[in-house]
Amino acid sequence: MSATTSGKKMSDPYPHPSGGWGSIREVTEILVQENVLSAKGIKVLLKQNKSDGFACVSCSWAKSGKPHVAEFCESGAKASAWEITSKRADAAFFAQHTLTELESWSDHELEGTGRLTEPMKWDAASDRYLPIAWTQAFAEIGAALRKLDPKSVVCYASGRASLETSYMWQLFARLYGNNNLPDSSNMCHETTSVALPQSIGVPIGTIRLEDFEHTDCIFFFGQNVGTNSPRMLHPLQEARKRGCEIITFNPIREPGLISFANPQSPLEMLTPKQTTISTQYHQPRVGGDSAVVMGICKTVIAADDAALRDGDARILDIEFIEQHTHGVEAFKQAARATAWEVIERESGLKREAIERAAAVYMKAKAVIVLYGMGLTQHRKGVRNVQMLCNMLFLRGNIGRPGAGVSPVRGHSNVQGQRTVGITEKPELAPLDKLAELFHFEPPRDKGLTTVEACEGVLDGSVKAFLGLGGNFTRAVPDTDRVEAAWRSLPLMVQIATKPNRSHLIHGELAYLLPCLGRIEIDRQASGEQAVSMEDSTGVMHGSRGQVEPAADTLLSEAAIVAGIAKATLDPNPHVDWDGWVGNYSRIRDMMALTFPENYKDINTRMWFPDGFPRPNAARERKWKTKTGKATFATPDSFEANPDMPETEPGRNLQLFTIRSDGQFNTTVYTMDDRFRGVYGTRKVLLMNPRDIAHWGLNDGEVVKASTISHDGIARSVGGLKIMSFDVPDGCVAGYYPECNPLIPLWHHDDQAKTPASKSIPISLEREPVAA
Ligand SMILES: Nc1nc2c(c(=O)[nH]1)N[C@H]1C(S)=C(S)[C@@H](COP(=O)(O)OP(=O)(O)OC[C@H]3O[C@@H](n4cnc5c(=O)[nH]c(N)nc54)[C@H](O)[C@@H]3O)O[C@H]1N2
Ligand SMILES: Nc1nc2c(c(=O)[nH]1)N[C@H]1C(S)=C(S)[C@@H](COP(=O)(O)OP(=O)(O)OC[C@H]3O[C@@H](n4cnc5c(=O)[nH]c(N)nc54)[C@H](O)[C@@H]3O)O[C@H]1N2
Ligand SMILES: [Mo]
């Protein structure tokens, strides 16, 4: 263990529950760091996730209709403080620094400069961002876009912008002439959006908040609730108090999945009382989940075979299976035929452990399965998600109270962006309706995913990138190669709140357009505006800004999209960009005309205390799949990395990239990860002592990690300190985005193209110690 700049030891285990005093201390610290520990800061936190307040800018977990006084969590409070900060990255700041110089700054330092205040354009002579008038910026961007082939332009969205802005964004792209609408979802739950329609006929999960009151067993696969969706800890805690079992599969023992103290409960805060979250905690190998779930299914099917033989009550829900599913026989055969030896090898778990989880599953009356990036960011992520559905089908655990599948989404409106038409898949967009409403012929060809957009920049076919939020080049795989290619990009336009590395890596023309954040009051011609969002359970909510804008030179995202659109497109009497920006309820009217089933009466319903749900056929046991039934998907293998060379069977190192509680994606609030006991640095590799010894290394030593692949391209990240940590054999954890240069662009889910950030084969070599 070594001392670090923060004065703490690099590795101090975190013995406390999540929630509790630790959370309160962290929240206070960040309010101080951002100079907003004031009446304004406190008022903002109290308005978070209230029906008359704003939807949190952190995660997309469901909002309760009966909120606590302080309906925020540590992560949400940090995200709010980060947005309402009193720090400014203004024209004076950019006058002092060339972009080349800023490239040497860390993610934390760059965003730590504060909110952007003025529109900027890169000036080649001085290598600086210089102020430009809004009208001039729009005119120049419009002129540049008009010269380009629309198919060579990418319109990315990062998952935070409202339904209103997102609707305008997809319409702009289509009026311009492309479906190149990748979303952060392409790096995240795209796996879900591809897997679930095949299995259950809807692209989203089937549970709602009230289901937590009816469930008696929850499975967690690869989702870190304590850090990434902490508001869910409250319903989980309630469920635990009722005796609900919670079974977790995660290669890391995450404190937030182990125990919780509720800051809303004075008794818990003053006594050492805390709720145990997981009643069983299993640490499979990364990528081993399909094998785990096959083990559970095999146990269930064997128990049912025995019951049938002995004349006992059946274990399978025969009625559900017969009435509602397709493909059960093939799946049962495969489960019976899969040897425990294969399951144990691929999962890294013992048969006994899997059978223990299966025993609880078989007893439970209503089961929820929650999952996150630990399942989706794999070469076989779609298979992982479909295995969860298979398991649920066996006992009819879908489409009834307290049971179902729940992908826990990331960005606060990422699911909504897809619902409102931001998609590169034309078959998912309401093209005929758009054609009818706006009198134009929308493009019908497939657009680019995130991975394909990067490929396009690498091969030169993509000429322009427009980003509605996000930190694209930092979030994507293969950072070094992508950044190198990005430097030849003819046009880049970034709509953002804070500076980040993606704004610095550019080609000929680069514009940085600062927007209002969601927490800020958005004043337009008809008065103060509100926006709407869809949460992870498919429920829509309204959101109103609460604080004065960071600068009076900012425009709303909707106004910026309209500004670009008007400067780029020929006038269309059916598209009233100015009228829409003047009154967002008119955008919602258009959303309701385009998608009546989802947004009917949205202007009223978005203010219901519980919000309002979009229809979900699978919840009602209606199956919009190809077979017309809930469809079992029988896997043909269980490997995590079917095409990666095994250099050393059983000892091959698989790197999985993780998030700390001190970050929101590429936004790094602090260098500490207190839950995992990592302080003052993010350049670490968490490895178990057996592997450290096997590789002839020592705790604290600095290594270079290199990707093992057969594409002939060298990829490595140096300066990584080895830290002894409880992870399964052969699994090594490192932080995202620092480790992204190690992920080959082609290393993605084979169907959904979600980058496989959770299992990257690597090798290690010791780095020479500097003299
Ligand atoms: N505070 C905070 N909140 C966030 C974010 C953030 O960065 N910070 N990001 C937001 C976004 S965009 C998203 S998508 C979500 C992400 O939230 P999560 O879905 O929780 O994603 P991760 O933190 O990347 O990984 C989740 C867990 O998967 C485990 N894991 C890794 N590989 C495997 C595997 O092969 N199998 C299993 N079973 N587990 C595995 C890791 O140990 C980790 O605990 O959170 C959102 N909320
Ligand atoms: N190795 C690895 N890579 C990953 C992942 C992983 O687990 N491992 N996770 C993936 C996942 S799940 C995701 S979702 C992506 C995230 O990818 P992105 O969504 O592209 O990245 P973020 O870091 O969320 O974007 C942060 C930036 O968004 C801007 N921003 C913040 N708020 C606003 C706003 O209100 N409006 C606008 N216009 N801009 C705003 C700020 O300028 C900030 O710097 O990364 C993916 N990459
Ligand atoms: Mo995400």
Heteromolecules bound:
ligand MGD, molybdenum atom
Could you say what the CATH architecture of the largest domain is?
3-Layer(aba) Sandwich
- Structural domain tally: 3
CA-based shape: globular
CATH class of the largest domain: Alpha Beta
Number of strands: 30
Secondary structure class reads alpha/beta
Q: Averaged pLDDT, please?
A: 93
Q: Indicate the radius of gyration in whole angstroms.
A: 25 Å
Report how far the terminal alpha carbons are from each other: 21 Å
What strand line-up does the widest sheet have? 5-4-17-16-15-6
Strand content: 15-25%
Task: Outline the biggest β-sheet.
Answer: 6 strands, mixed
Residues in helix, %: 25-40%
Count the DSSP helices. Answer: 31
The CATH topology label of the largest domain is: Rossmann fold
**Stretches where pLDDT falls below 50 for ≥5 residues?**
1-10
Task: Explain what you see.
By secondary structure, this protein is of the alpha/beta class. The protein is built from 31 helices and 30 strands. The strands form 8 sheets. Strands 5-4-17-16-15-6 form a 6-stranded mixed β-sheet. Strands 26-28-27-30-23-29 form a 6-stranded mixed β-sheet. α14 runs parallel beside α20. The radius of gyration is 25 Å and the shape is globular. Residues 1-10 have low confidence and may be disordered. One ligand MGD binds at residues 58-59, 75, 188, 221-224, 227-228, 249-252, 254, 284, 286-287, 289, 372-374, 408, 410-411, 656, 658-659, 663-665, 758.
